[in-house]
Amino acid sequence: MRWFYAVGKEKVGPLTEAEIGKLADDGTITDKTLVWTDGTKKWLPFAQAKAAPSTPPPPEQALETAVKKVACSQCNNSFPIDETIQYGGQRICASCKSAFFQKVKEGKNVSTTMTYGGFWIRFGAKFLDGIVTGLCYMVVAFAVGFMVQSDAENPGPLFFLFFVQMAIPAVYTTFFLGKFQATPGKMAAGLIVVSPDGGRISYGRAFGRHLGEFLSSIILGIGYLMAAFDNEKRTLHDRICSTRVIKKR
Ligand SMILES: [Zn+2]
To answer: Which member of 1, 3, 45, 101 has the greatest number of CB atoms within 10 A?
Structure first.
């Protein structure tokens, strides 16, 4: 493996690992000296290059890393891991980077600990969403009631309304969680629904979570109540779909 090191703007090398070791011993190369190796394929401070694996990962693994999405600890959006930088165990995206380091410079608290939304604030959010979806349903129900009579001989409209009653919350929840990470009720409460690493959830997961909520409610709401006793404030549907509800920063 070839090594190069930088003296000002000049590169020196190629050198062998043994030669580099010798230069490090005599102090020509310090931990801060920029070095380039076939392993890292980029200029890094010697301290980092030493720690890097000596051979690049195979294509499959490199690709996996390239497409792996992580959540920016600042804006909570997902980015390919390579487009983020790491700072003290958190990932920061390119657009949040300068604001983030400004905060670091000013000595502000930049810890990433997620603050989970507790039972009562989530109850309030759910209540608001219930009002919104309930109103939507009532509009449809009134309209249908005006247009058609429904009775034992003509149960069609009732079945239709039952379907509407199921569909409105499903569409509402899936759309808002997939697109904005929060339903209007959760937005009002300052909450968002995220994956365990703090990333965005897909529409599919949002829909699955909605189905999970059915389960939480048909067992007498115990699924919801579980949030009050969980260290990550997870409801049953959060456990099933591997989601967390956190306070938006
Ligand atoms: Zn960001």
So the answer is: 3
Report the pLDDT averaged over residues 85-111.
80
Residue 182 C-alpha to ligand 1 middle, in angstroms?
18
pLDDT in tens, 118-165: 999 999 999 999 999 999 999 999 998 888 877 778 888 889 999 999
Contact 126, 185 (CB under 8 A): yes
Q: Are 39 and 50 in contact (CB under 8 A)?
A: no
Question: How far is ligand 1, taken at its centre, from the CA of residue 224, in Å?
Answer: 31
The structural domains of the chain, with segments of one domain joined by +, span 1-56, 59-111, 119-247
Helix (H) or strand (E) holding 90: strand 90-93
What distances in angstroms separate CA 181 from CA 41, 89, 210, 227, one per listed residue?
38, 23, 13, 19
45-60 pLDDT, tens digit per residue, is 888 887 776 666 677 7
C-alpha to C-alpha distance for 246 and 249, rounded to whole angstroms: 9
Terminal Cα distance for the chain, rounded: 46
At the topology level of CATH, where does 1-56 sit?
Dna Ligase; domain 1 (3.30.1490)
With beta carbons less than 8 A apart as the criterion, state whether 232 and 246 touch: no
Query: Which residues are CB-neighbours of 129 under 8 A, at least 6 positions away?
Result: 169, 172, 173, 183, 184, 185, 186
- DSSP three-state, residue 229: helix
State the distance from the centre of ligand 1 to the C-alpha of 249, rounded, in angstroms. Answer: 12
